[in-house]
């Protein structure tokens, strides 16, 4: 289940582009990508399961206002504003568009519009059903997808194959200048750390239904299953990156074109059809899960409206954004990602530290999160074109918009920890998060029933 939750659209399109753009620096770039795209989501799952709360509960430890706004931004970014439109667009690029090419129909804006309309109509139909259809599809889909990708990897790496001899690609731009930090940044764009904080409570509930009732049992089971999912993700990412590095022709930055070319070259027309069907189902399942999560959260946060209107409105917004194209979606969401990721990663690390303490911390939650939020805002502003704050910080010689927030936030966190130890603050935070866990449980219960 964890692998199925994490393996979405970005997990398909980013690694091939990374492999084609990295050249001789592929090991370093791939290492950075796995750190932020695999290890950090694993830590996020462990943090959430150790705390027994989802992102709502974790965020409320910082403060009530932060506890309201931060989860809202996370749900919107991985839901109707980015995650859902992205899977619809990727399913078009990897499934519908190749099929249209096989039957001699030229793709156009009308094709994307019809595809996305049908895609979201089916998504809404499945999400409104009380049966767990998405779960049942996922149990069949994931092994099938892994099997087909394994075949694609094997064919691509065969000696003498059209793409098996390599392409001699050179590292491009930032991949050549800063391969490790570039890989770290590309791992951000999978959004899996954000997804882990949202889906973590679903993991907790599933484990409790299987008889893991104590916090220790839940944490151990979630950690073991998380390790399995992480190993699978790392293996698939490595294979996809190598496919991109060994596929000739397409633009190195276009992951969809690289994967489509590799599929056609390695598996032929029948393979393209099979691969397109599996990708379409994978994206559909992801879309159902994300829209259901958003609608469940929204119907609990704003009790005046029910689950169905939130689902329909979110699907309509996703439909509109999907027709703007993937590059436009990435341009819109990238600043928000640069803002949310430092905050989310900091909150996850603090939660792991808090698990080792006799009780909840205070300053360690507020100070480093505030620092990460401020520095993340600098990176987000730089991404949209206002580089004045970033240029001022760059005079320090250690700042960059990707990872410049890490050392300052770590330093602030250590000072805050010393402050908590000195003042004996090993008790529940001052902010009132009473009822938070109950609200999270209501969201999960609503999603499970639906």
TrEMBL record:
- Which GO CC terms are listed, alphabetically? plasma membrane
Q: A Pfam family this protein belongs to?
A: Branch_AA_trans
Q: Which residues cross the membrane?
A: 29-50, 62-82, 110-128, 140-158, 188-207, 227-247, 267-291, 311-333, 339-357, 364-382, 402-422
Q: Record keywords: Cell membrane included?
A: yes
A Gene Ontology molecular-function term? Answer: L-valine transmembrane transporter activity
Similarity-based family: Belongs to the branched chain amino acid transporter family.
A single Gene Ontology biological process assigned to it is: isoleucine transport
Q: Which domain of life is it from?
A: Bacteria
Question: What is this protein's name?
Answer: Branched-chain amino acid transport system II carrier protein
Naturally occurring in which organism (per UniProt): Actinomyces respiraculi
Its main subcellular localisation, reduced to a broad class, is membrane
């Amino acid at each position: 289940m964890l692998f199925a939750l994490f393996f979405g659209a970005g997990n398909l399109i980013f690694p091939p582009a990374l492999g084609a753009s990295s050249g001789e620096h592929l090991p370093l770039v791939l290492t950075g990508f796995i750190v932020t795209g695999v290890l950090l989501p694993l830590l996020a799952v462990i943090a959430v399961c150790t705390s027994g709360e989802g992102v709502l509960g974790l965020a409320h430890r910082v403060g009530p206002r932060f506890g309201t706004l931060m989860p809202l931004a996370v749900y919107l970014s991985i839901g109707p504003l980015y995650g859902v439109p992205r899977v619809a667009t990727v399913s078009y690029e990897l499934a519908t568009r190749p099929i249209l090419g096989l039957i001699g129909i030229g793709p156009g804006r009308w094709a994307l519009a019809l595809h996305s309309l049908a895609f979201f109509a089916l998504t809404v139909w499945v999400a409104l059903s009380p049966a767990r259809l998405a779960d049942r599809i996922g149990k069949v889909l994931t092994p099938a997808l892994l099997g087909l990708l394994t075949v694609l990897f094997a064919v691509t790496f065969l000696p003498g194959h059209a793409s098996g001899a390599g392409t001699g690609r050179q590292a491009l731009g930032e991949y050549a200048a800063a391969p490790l930090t570039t890989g770290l940044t590309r791992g951000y764009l999978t959004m899996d750390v954000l997804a882990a904080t949202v889906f973590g409570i679903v993991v907790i509930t599933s484990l409790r239904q299987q008889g893991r009732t104590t916090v220790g049992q839940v944490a151990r089971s979630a950690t073991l299953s998380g390790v399995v999912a992480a190993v699978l993700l790392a293996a698939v990412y490595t294979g996809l990156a190598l496919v991109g590095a060994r596929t000739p022709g397409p633009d190195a930055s276009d992951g969809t074109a690289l994967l489509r070319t590799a599929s056609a070259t390695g598996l032929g027309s029948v393979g393209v059809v099979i691969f397109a069907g599996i990708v379409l189902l994978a994206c559909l399942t992801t879309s159902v899960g994300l829209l259901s999560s958003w609608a469940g959260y929204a119907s609990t946060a704003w009790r005046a409206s029910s689950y169905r209107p939130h689902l329909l409105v979110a699907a309509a917004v996703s439909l509109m954004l999907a027709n703007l194209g993937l590059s436009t979606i990435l341009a819109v969401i990238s600043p928000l990602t640069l803002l949310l990721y430092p905050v989310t990663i900091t909150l996850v690390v603090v939660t792991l530290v808090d698990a080792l303490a006799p009780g909840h911390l205070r300053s360690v939650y507020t100070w480093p999160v505030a620092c990460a939020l401020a520095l993340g805002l600098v990176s987000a502003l730089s991404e949209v074109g206002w580089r004045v704050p970033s240029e001022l910080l760059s005079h320090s010689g250690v700042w960059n918009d990707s990872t410049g927030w890490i050392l300052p936030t770590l330093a602030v966190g250590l000072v805050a920890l010393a402050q908590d130890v000195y003042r004996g603050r090993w008790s529940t935070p001052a902010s009132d998060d009473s009822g938070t866990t109950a609200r999270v449980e209501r969201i999960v219960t609503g999603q499970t029933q639906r």
